Amino acid sequence: MKLDDIDLKLIKLLTDNGRMSYVDLAKELGLSHVSVRERVNQLKDEGVIEKFSVVINSEKVGKTVSAFFEVDCEPTALVSVAEELAENPRVASCYQMTGPSTLHMHVLVQDFVELEHFINEELYALKGINRVESHILLRRFKSRNGLKL
User: Rounded to two decimals, what is the model's pTM?
Assistant: First the structure.
């Protein structure tokens, strides 16, 4: 699908406020609300817009410790380890990175007791992990939620 300038403006508006009504979007774009609805539906159908979601401030819901992990795995265990970690509710994101079978993972927990439990009882319990390196987030300067156009 080739995106035109109106599609790009529409995506930017929805990225800034995913709850904008079709009427408000139409006013911003100079189109009818029917035309905007059709464009949004086409963007969803084509997979440009994957979903609409809510961004939750993790600290406001009690997840005050944010940690990042580099997890080196046995090559044959990488996918199974990644799939198991992806199912863990403490794991906010998990990516395969370049390098020797490395996963990059972001974990959100209530406190250091929960982080220690996650590391010792859940992470180290997985078969196929060779090495784990962790980094605790001290301060966030920018956080990304999907692609910004």
Answer: 0.77
